[in-house]
């Protein structure tokens, strides 16, 4: 039987081979193992295989799983990759180490206020709606420069990079290229893009973090 640990190993091999193929420095791409919907018993073998960087998309779900796993394993780094409501900022700052989904001024301010209160300065990514899809979260490409400036200079967030989720029905390359371009002109070194189906492509376009779920944990029962 193929285990999650086997699939983790395959994904890591793929990442290394993509780094070589696309002339990226070895080790320049970090793997975020997306464990949403999977319970502690499904996550533990992946921790035992050495993975320490994980992504979750719901604050409540993460709060139910990760405190126990942090007791068992040292050095866990947990990334919030799903939408955030400002009334969950307190829990988000207490539970996560990196936030990928800053997408409006209200959230930026709520996060900063909580970070000050809790004495935790978390690295943040700005989510960009590269496909300008009405139902999708994220800042429109033309508004990103101003929003990054406000988050840094007025709110005082530690903005490290940009994140996107391309439209499901389009080739992702164009979106990845756009995100890389916007990150470059804003002097942002981190680019969070690429999921199970397209992380290789994303590495070709400069991803520094890929967010891979089902290719490691298997098919989810719900999205
Ligand atoms: C679920 C999710 C992923 C991982 O998706 P897979 O296709 O399972 O790799 C990546 N990014 C975000 C924002 C997600 O919600």
Number of helices: 9
N- and C-termini, Cα separation: 24 Å
Mean pLDDT: 97
- The H-and-E topology, N to C, reads as HEHEHEHEHEHEHEHEH
Shape: globular
How are the strands ordered across the major sheet?
7-6-5-4-3-2-1-8
Percentage of residues in helical conformation:
40-55%
- Spans of at least 5 consecutive residues whose pLDDT stays below 50 are none
Structural class: alpha/beta
State the major sheet: 8 strands, parallel
Q: What ligands can be seen in this structure? A: pyridoxal-5'-phosphate
Q: How much strand content do the residues show?
A: 15-25%
What attributes characterize this protein structure?
223 residues; alpha/beta; 17% strand; globular; binds pyridoxal-5'-phosphate
Structure overview:
- The chain has 223 residues and is of the alpha/beta class.
- It contains 9 helices and 8 strands.
- The protein has an 8-stranded parallel sheet with strand order 7-6-5-4-3-2-1-8.
- α3 (59-72) links the parallel β2 (53-56) and β3 (77-80).
- α4 packs across α5 (105-118).
- The longest helix has 18 residues, at 4-21.
- The structure holds pyridoxal-5'-phosphate.
- Pyridoxal-5'-phosphate binds next to β8 and α9.
In short:
Helix content is 43%, strand content 17%.
Produce the secondary structure layout:
Layout lengths: L3 H18 L8 E5 L5 H9 L4 E4 L2 H14 L4 E4 L8 H7 L2 E5 L2 H14 L4 E6 L15 H12 L2 E7 L8 H13 L4 E3 L6 H6 L4 E4 L1 H4 L6
Helix pairs in contact: 4-5, 5-6
């Amino acid at each position: 039987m193929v285990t999650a640990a086997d699939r983790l190993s395959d994904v890591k091999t793929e990442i290394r081979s993509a780094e070589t193929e696309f002339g990226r420095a070895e080790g320049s791409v970090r793997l975020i193992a997306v464990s949403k919907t999977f319970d502690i018993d499904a996550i533990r073998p992946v921790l035992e295989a050495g993975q320490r960087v994980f992504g979750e998309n719901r604050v409540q779900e993460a709060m139910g799983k990760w405190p126990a796993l942090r007791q068992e394993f040292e050095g866990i780094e947990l990334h919030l990759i799903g939408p955030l409501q400002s009334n969950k900022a307190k829990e988000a700052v207490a539970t996560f180490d990196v936030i990928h989904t800053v997408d409006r001024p209200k959230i930026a301010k709520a996060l900063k206020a909580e970070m000050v209160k809790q004495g935790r300065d978390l690295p943040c990514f700005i989510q960009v709606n590269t496909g300008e899809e009405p139902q999708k979260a994220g800042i429109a490409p033309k508004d990103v420069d101003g929003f990054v400036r406000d988050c840094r200079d007025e709110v005082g967030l530690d903005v490290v990079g940009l994140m996107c989720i391309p439209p499901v029905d389009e080739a992702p390359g164009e979106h990845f290229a756009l995100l890389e371009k916007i990150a470059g002109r804003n002097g942002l070194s981190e680019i969070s893009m690429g999921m199970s189906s397209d992380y290789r492509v994303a590495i070709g376009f400069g991803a520094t973090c890929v967010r891979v779920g089902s290719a490691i944990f298997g098919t989810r029962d719900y999205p």
